[in-house]
Amino acid sequence: DALISTVMPRARQIVNDSVGHRGDGGNPAVGAGVSSAASNFLGSPVLTGGAMAASANATVLDYDLDDQAFELSQISEGYIGRMCSSLDELIEPLRVHLVPKLADDLVIGILGGVSKRLEVAIRKSKFTPLGAISLDSDIRYLMTFAKDRIDSPELKSNITLCKACPPLARLNQITLLMNVEDLEDALDLISVSKRKGNWDLKLDDAKTLLSLRVDFEGSKVDDLLQIEDE
After folding, report:
1. What pLDDT digit, counting tens, does each position of 95-112 carry?
2. What is the value of pTM for the model shown?
């Protein structure tokens, strides 16, 4: 837990840099201080490296995509790939010094913090249907990234990984919700998922997220989702 707490500020900053948001109030000393502290762990400079400084011209999180922007997103490196590359520079030098159980705990802990920060960023973007498809691709990429760095066979499935990391489970639920074809499908998804016990999003969350879809009218979202939030 102490190690996770030490590296988490840098993990959050990696997300902020990748999605195009600043979380340190623009103060470069914040990132520098964290880098200095964590570089002392086992003598490994885990928080430095050029790849973690996102280019000002790099692709940032944006799911308000038309056909041309969507096609471009499929052939170029997006923010999620850049983010995972930077997270690798943060995690891998630490994992090699840890027993498998502790290494998995480190990955899950950082993944949780990253997923929370990603959810905040996702809620700031508008979504087209193509953008929702792009989100699905990005979250799948993040899931694969996590599973490739986890040693325990029990955590190699999406279901067990999401149970171990509730913030990641929320991202998966958000992805399902944003990819519905129409509002009636959203209602079915919520109802069925709640009965199965694998739905954490509250009704207000669902309304807020669906209102980000540019093809869904906010008033219709509110009118349709008049179900009891159990």
Report:
1. 989 999 999 999 999 999
2. 0.81
